[in-house]
Write a structure and sequence with these properties.
By secondary structure, the chain is an alpha+beta fold. It has one domain (3-148): 2-Layer Sandwich (Alpha-D-Glucose-1,6-Bisphosphate, Chain A, domain 4). The chain is built from three helices and seven strands; from the N terminus they run E-H-H-E-E-E-E-E-E-H. Strands 1-7-6-5-4-3-2 form a seven-stranded antiparallel beta sheet, with helices on one face. A hairpin with a 2-residue loop joins strand 3 and strand 4. It is globular and about 45 Å long. Pfam families: Polyketide_cyc (PF03364). Residues 11-127 form the Coenzyme Q-binding protein COQ10 START domain. This is SRPBCC family protein.
């Protein structure tokens, strides 16, 4: 099971970073490359513990849907979302926010299991893990840019 971990320093208070990361509208804005949008469940505003959201996006040239549920939330430091249905066999995405002098360290920890057994393992090594890492890093950089420009 691949585990992708990425840390991003953001020159903004922890509560702002936390709220931006769980904001459905901001999620859509920071994933514009894949045209991600919420189509069911919570489709705008801030996600809370127990909320579910179905995302529709284009990955690898195909329209895909994925439903995730927020299973844990400790404001403003941690929230966890897990896949309920979607292209992966499973995933758990832990979002952590740590106060740091002059800002916040945002940590994404994305653990997933690909579908299709051995074929999925090969896909991870050939392209999927790199793709997912780049997706997470791109979103983190976009969140940083938004958070650091809030007045």
């Amino acid at each position: 099971m691949p585990i992708i971990e990425h840390q991003q320093f953001i020159k903004a208070p922890v509560d702002i970073c936390f709220d931006l990361a769980r904001n459905v509208d901001i999620h859509t804005q920071t994933t514009s490359k894949t045209r991600e949008r919420a189509v069911s469940g919570v489709t705008e505003g801030l996600l809370e513990q127990g909320d579910m959201v179905t995302w529709e996006a284009f990955h690898f040239g195909m329209k895909q849907r994925l439903t995730a549920k927020v299973t844990e939330m400790e404001k403003p430091h941690t929230f966890v979302d897990v896949m309920v249905t979607g292209a992966f066999h499973s995933f758990v995405h832990t979002h952590q926010f740590i106060n740091e002098a002059g800002g916040t360290i945002m940590i994404d920890k994305f653990q997933y299991k690909s579908p299709f057994g051995l074929i999925g393992v090969v896909a991870d090594k050939v392209f999927l893990e790199k793709y997912m890492r780049e997706f997470i890093i791109s979103r983190a950089k976009a969140l940083k840019k938004i958070a650091e420009n809030i007045e």
